[in-house]
Write a structure and sequence with these properties.
Length: 534
């Protein structure tokens, strides 16, 4: 087994073989296609095309909403588990659209590594950059997949330079492409001295892999035309001179990313990337928590909720809390302590998402993502333990950047609307504020598209037609301080005060200037744009 990072003792084998990661990319770079190939080689689906198949029966979790199909964006995050060789992969899907950055941020708290997909013709795009910054905050190890090499793409050194410069991370080639566009033949595996040749006749055929003895091996000339071979030799020599060699430690620290060149649609380079995730990727890592960090090999089970999805299956009307297990060996039926309420909770029907179907799971290990159906007890940030009062840190809730008031166009459905809104608030899909004065609700989101998604979900899942309207407010801040000072402030500013779905006090305002003024004039009160979810 490979050395563990940070010189910790070896993990139990079942935990050590877990790889929990997300794919980050700009829309259209090929995330869906790559996911599909992962599932194909993980034996989770039988045929390519299933992930994006339009038929109801074949929809996957990451694709379950009509909106999503219409717009080609991923608005829900979910997790899929599958085996690959000796490894157990947990792939956590991140919503691709920038409007869902908060959701994405929380998803990335649940993984140990990320695969960054870039389009070989486009390089580092805006959304890749943003998501990368989020990974950087947590020093997540990143593996890079440069996709669409079967098309005309940019010069390889240019692409690598751009990543190094724009993202301030060292890049080391794990493979080197041979030819580009129409002439793309395959890649030279720089870490294992192998030649991988793409099969153009069948998109689902795995590349032929030929073991060679370095770049002077005469076998190369049997497969690569002379001009391309010459260029390959020159390029690889230059790459070895100019670019850092692979170092597992630098990769695990998040300061170096290995890059593979491939074509997801042609199944090329995908298995090499998967092997890379297995071979080098981090095992389940130590998780920050209060009052102490939690190591994956602790025998007691612990985990935290990073995502709640309501109404995944309209027939069941349940909610599923996605829990990242941080330590121990979980077994179905276990009684865990729900730390926020200090109440025991029997986890009798946990599910794991094995590609297109969710299945009851008998056991799970640190690193795994399990779904726990519940009726609303479990919220984002909640910890589950075997009794210890742990709180996993670093799962923030952001102040919304856009506020609108919402009302039902059917006046008979007001009460139901409140229930629906609270569910979405608990799911983390929106902030819902109840103003101290007046009726109705103010909904806050990070990106405008979320209003449309919410309106469509409220109608679809609860049968309530709603209308979002501009609100007089534009900003929200959580406000805390000594109770007497807070009460005095609330009395004077009644028309600006509201509570969120947890009952925490929120100050709503029109002007950034108001926030500055309160901060200046009320030194005992704290205004905050984020709140830790617990
Ligand atoms: P996303 O999830 O990151 O948004 O990207 P997705 O996989 O949906 O891929 C975006 C488009 O790029 C798709 O084409 C897909 O077929 C294509 N694509 C993915 N990988 C490769 C590749 O290696 N080479 C080439 N040439 N194309 C690739 P589309 O026309 O938008 O969709 P579709 O009609 O093919 O489904």
């Amino acid at each position: 087994m490979l050395d563990r990072a940070h010189n910790l003792p070896a993990l139990p084998p079942e935990i050590a073989r877990r790889r929990t990661f997300a794919i980050i990319s700009h829309p259209d770079a090929g995330k869906t296609t790559l996911t599909e190939k992962f599932l194909l080689y993980g034996g989770a689906i039988q045929m390519a095309g299933q992930v994006r198949a339009k038929g109801e029966a074949r929809r996957t979790r990451s694709d379950f909403m009509q909106m999503e199909k219409d717009r080609g964006i991923s608005v829900s995050a979910s997790a899929m588990s599958f085996e690959f060789g000796d490894y157990w992969f947990n792939l956590v899907d991140t919503p691709g659209h920038s409007d869902f950055s908060e959701d994405t941020y929380r998803t990335l708290t649940a993984v140990d590594a990320a695969v960054m997909v870039i389009d070989g013709a486009k390089g580092v795009e805006s959304q890749t950059q943003k998501l990368f910054e989020v990974c950087r905050l947590r020093d997540l190890p990143i593996l890079t997949f440069c996709n669409k090499m079967d098309r005309e793409s940019r010069d390889v050194f240019d692409i690598i330079d751009e990543i190094q410069e724009n993202l301030a991370i060292d890049v080391t080639p794990a493979s080197w492409p041979i030819g580009i566009g129409r002439d793309f033949l395959g890649a030279y595996d720089m870490l294992h001295d192998r030649l991988e040749l793409m099969d153009r006749t069948d998109r689902n055929t795995v590349a032929e892999s030929i073991k060679i003895e370095g770049l002077d091996d005469p076998k190369l000339a049997e497969h690569i035309p002379a001009p391309l071979l010459e260029k390959l030799r020159e390029d690889v020599e230059m790459a070895r001179e100019l670019l850092p060699p692979f170092s597992r430690q630098d990769f695990l620290d998040g300061s170096l990313t290995p890059i593979w060149f491939g074509s997801a649609i042609n199944s090329f380079g995908v298995q090499e990337l998967m092997k890379g995730i297995g071979e080098f990727g981090p095992e389940p890592q130590v998780r920050p928590a209060e009052p102490r960090a939690v190591s994956a090999d602790e025998t007691k089970v612990s985990g935290f909720v990073f995502k709640v999805q309501a109404n995944m299956d309209p027939k069941h009307r349940d909610r599923v809390a996605f829990v990242r297990l941080c330590s121990g060996h979980f077994k179905r039926g276990m009684k865990l302590t729900h730390v926020r309420s200090k109440k025991p909770m029997a986890i009798s029907n946990p599910v794991m998402f094995l590609a297109s179907d969710r299945e009851l799971t008998e056991e799970a290990w640190a690193g795994d993502i399990i779904g726990i159906p519940n009726h609303g007890q479990l919220r984002i940030g909640d910890a589950l333990t075997e009794g210890e009062m742990l709180r996993f840190s670093g799962i923030p809730s952001f102040a919304p950047e856009l506020l609108q008031s919402v009302r039902s166009t059917d006046p008979m459905k007001g009460k139901h609307l409140e229930k629906a809104l609270m569910q979405f608030a608990e799911e983390g899909a929106a902030k819902v504020f109840k103003p101290m004065i007046g009726s109705g609700f103010i909904v806050g989101v990070v990106g405008a598209l979320q209003f449309e998604v919410l309106a469509s979900r409220i109608e679809l899942e609860y049968g309530i037609p709603v209308r979002f309207e501009p609100s007089q407010f534009t900003s929200a801040r959580w406000i805390t301080g000594p109770q007497d000072k807070l009460n005095a402030f609330m009395n004077v500013n009644k028309s600006h005060m509201a509570t969120d779905h947890d009952g925490d006090t929120v100050y709503l305002t029109r002007l950034k200037w108001d926030i500055d003024r309160v901060e200046r004039d009320q030194p005992d009160l704290t205004l905050s744009a984020t709140k830790e979810m617990l």
